[in-house]
Amino acid sequence: MQGERTDLQGKSIEERFWSKVDIKGLNECWPWKGYINPSGYGLFRYYDRYIGAHKIALILSKENIPEDSIACHKCDNRKCCNPNHIYPGTNSDNQRDRYERIKTKRRSMCIEVNLVT
């Protein structure tokens, strides 16, 4: 996304994108208010193609993102566009992080169950 590009209404890509994000506190999830695909991810129309809203958030907030990277969520909220919750990584990174979070969640659920009994 080089330079200041505008859409047909004369709005910059950044303006159009961020107007579709419910920006909240720095550590909160920022839900996408635009189109959500059947998998639960927000999509943003960038000229003639649709790109994941979380990837656009990452691109707009950082300068050097490897070409072959994907946008990974730290929060596991597919609608989240908070750049603090998204990082560039590989599919392997994404799967490993997801597995670790699931494992941690299960552990904390077991501890809660043991505390209740």
Provide an overview of this structure:
The chain has 117 residues and is of the alpha+beta class. The protein has a domain at 13-90: Homing Intron 3 (I-Ppo) Encoded Endonuclease, Chain A. Helix content is 35%, strand content 14%. It contains three helices and four strands; from the N terminus they run αββαββα. It has helices at 13-18, 53-61, 91-116, and strands at 43-46, 49-52, 70-73, 86-89. A two-stranded antiparallel sheet has the order 1-2. β1 and β2 form a beta hairpin. The radius of gyration is 17 Å and the shape is globular. The N and C termini lie far apart (55 Å). 19% of the residues are buried. The mean pLDDT is 84.
Q: Mean pLDDT, rounded to whole units?
A: 84
Number of strands: 4
Q: How many DSSP H or I helices?
A: 3
Q: Which H/E pattern describes the elements?
A: HEEHEEH
CATH architecture of the domain at 13-90: Alpha-Beta Complex
In what range is the share of β-strand residues?
5-15%
Helical percent range? 25-40%
Gist of the model:
35% of the residues lie in helices and 14% in strands.
Provide the descriptors you would attach to this structure in a database record.
117 residues; alpha+beta; Homing Intron 3 (I-Ppo) Encoded Endonuclease, Chain A; two-stranded antiparallel sheet
